[in-house]
TrEMBL record:
Listed InterPro entries: Metallo-B-lactamas, RibonucZ/Hydroxyglut_hydro, UPF0173, UPF0173_UPF0282_UlaG_hydrolase
Family membership noted in the UniProt record: Belongs to the UPF0173 family.
SUPFAM superfamilies on file: Metallo-hydrolase/oxidoreductase
Pfam families: Lactamase_B_2
UniProt entry tagged with the keyword Hydrolase: yes
Taxonomic source organism: Virgibacillus natechei
Name this polypeptide is given: UPF0173 metal-dependent hydrolase J2Z83_000986
Every Metallo-beta-lactamase domain range: 7-192
């Protein structure tokens, strides 16, 4: 399995038979190295409905005939756009041919803003536990610190956790360090930072301070093998 980071909260997972994109915010994201017109994906996993996470989902999914797995209301909205979706909700898990997906809680918002300014409610925000080929990846999603992260860490052997550190809209570095201790992942990767000035952070400093597991800053496009 190969896992790569592509700016903001964009994560790509390549298994033996599938390419999975998480929160593919590509167009309009200067921190992303992917091309929305050519990127391949068999599956798209979404944590919530904000535009900087849904991103290019509609175009990518249509071009690739990809399955979109998302919280129920967001999945229903995207189905109305002609996408093949699988709705889920917090606490639920499902076994797909590419692996097991379980949605966890996250404390944030979730709404999609149309081009004309119309705001569409897209249900509860979430984190995503993806287990495939013997590895578990936890995309924490956009969230503040909450104590059940400790329980999620105790219940799952997490190989890589993608944890937001940007502050203002999500956890900042101090709270994210507590979250990293509770999650107990083998590798902790900071995300959701430096996309724009309001969420600028020193990711290297955060990674050095991670006490439980290895803090690792992934450069844009960098890949790790699990």
């Amino acid at each position: 399995m190969k896992v790569s980071y592509h700016g903001h909260s964009v994560v790509k997972i390549e298994t033996s038979n599938h390419t999975i994109l998480m929160d593919p915010f590509i167009s309009g994201n200067e921190a992303c190295d992917l091309d929305a017109d050519t990127v391949k994906a068999d599956v798209i996993l979404l944590t919530h409905g904000h535009n900087d996470h849904v991103g290019d989902t509609v175009d990518i999914a249509k071009r690739n005939e990809a399955l979109v797995v998302a919280p129920n209301e967001l999945a229903n909205y995207l189905e109305s756009k002609g996408l093949n979706t699988h709705p889920m909700h917090i606490g639920g898990k499902h076994d797909f041919d590419f692996g097991r997906v379980k949605f966890t809680q996250a404390f944030h918002g979730s709404a999609y803003t149309e081009d004309d300014g119309t705001i569409i409610y897209t249900g509860m925000p979430a984190g995503i536990l993806l287990t495939a080929e013997g590895n578990t990846i936890y995309h924490v999603g956009d969230t503040g610190l909450f104590s059940d992260l400790r329980l999620i860490g105790e219940m799952n052997e997490i190989d890589v956790a993608f944890v937001p550190i940007g502050d203002n809209f999500t956890m900042g570095p101090e709270d994210a360090l507590v979250a990293a201790d509770w999650i107990e992942a083998k590798i902790v990767v900071p995300v959701h930072f430096n996309t724009f000035p309001l969420i600028e952070q020193d990711a290297e400093d955060f990674a050095k301070k991670v006490q439980t597991g290895q803090g690792r800053v992934m450069q844009i496009g960098e890949e790790m093998k699990l």
